[in-house]
User: What shape does this take?
Amino acid sequence: MAERSEEVKLLGMWASPFSRRVEIALTLKGLPYEFSEQDIANKSPLLLQSNPVHKMIPVLLHNGKPISESLVILEYIDETWQNNPILPQDPYDRAIARFWARFVDEQIYVTAMKVVGKVGEEKDAAVEATRDLLKLMEKELVGKDFLGGESLGFVDIVATLVAFWLMRTEEVVGVKVVPVEMFPEIHRWVKNLLDVDVIKKCIPPEDEHLNYIRARMDSLKLKSV
Amino acid sequence: MADEVILLDYWPSMFGMRTRVALEEKNIKFDYREQDLFNKSPILLEMNPVHKKIPVLIHNGKPVCESLIQVEYIDETWPGGNSFLPSDPYQRAQAKFWGDFIDKKVYGPTRLIWGAKGEEQEAGTKEFIEMLKMLESELGDKTYFGGETFGYVDIAMIGFYCWFDVLEKCGNFSIEAECPKLIAWAKRCMKRESVAKSLPDSDKITKFVPELKKKIGIE
Assistant: This one.
């Protein structure tokens, strides 16, 4: 494999699951990169210039050229550096992986956000809806160590959002959205993830993360008063 | 053994049109099965149990869901002829970015334009024009979004073209006035057999929308 002079920079945010998943991919591939913490409330000129359409993190800059949208970034990383493949080879398996990745981001994430953002009956409904979606993920894990099969893959990396964001929010939100009795496979999968060095290295430190989530929720409550 | 390709689809869907165009571009014979979305068939529910939506591409009995995922699957499974995505990873990423943009930013406002009234409808129209202008800026003076060859982003967007008439009527605006390059692009695409075969006539869509509104219970 040819040696290339690479400059890889990630515009991200330490507590964002979308940013962290890119870090997981880069670390899995053994790629050195420069991480630039972005202030979302006060967006840098570099961020605005690199992602003028959405003005959001994460943005990967490879030799100065920007790539935006975390799922697009993950595929770009996988295609550019072919060691430790993230996506499967077979076109059908790839289509399935892409389907579940979108499911996590477009269904689970969107619904789970309502658990944090709503109160009372609306919150209960959001919990129910999230659980219904997670039941589908639970089914996918039966007989598998990871969503990707025997080893960590594309969907696992994307679904760290469930393992280390949704499930961590439970502590702060005071609702066990993902109880172990209802979701034994998901709980087993989280343990498997925590055994993977790259994951341990790349997820936000728990205490700091919980404090951050608490602070955000408090500020959301203040806004709704 | 010959490939068996079935497409569960709904004729006015701009998402279904993507898959139709992709299959036609690759000259793949497929069995088009019109679905009644108000009375979902057992095969639809079985093949897309998660979303219960069209389009569903069934290849030798195995379902692929989500239109852009289907377009990529078609490109990867039948690699001969016209490649929808460039071979360079950076160019591919740009194409996927714009496909995602169309899904996230262009579709939503269209529902407000034909489905809502007053301020909501106006907001939808304004948003839609803004998003089209972003796309037009990305197109620039190129023949197609990918350059000289018809590809992924063109396929992602072209289905919206047959909806333009009804959107203009509902929103009281002219897309050609706002985005002339985009209209020129669409007309170029319509000259392709794959596109002409896959898109219904604009006036069919225009006649259909009031019926659709009645069916879903909005005036």
Notes: Chain A has two domains: 8-80, 91-223. Chain A has nine helices and four strands. Chain A touches chain B at residues 53, 62, 65, 67-69, 71-73, 75-76, 79-80, 91-92, 94-96, 98-99, 102-103, 136 (CB under 8 Å). The two ends of chain A are 58 Å apart (CA to CA).
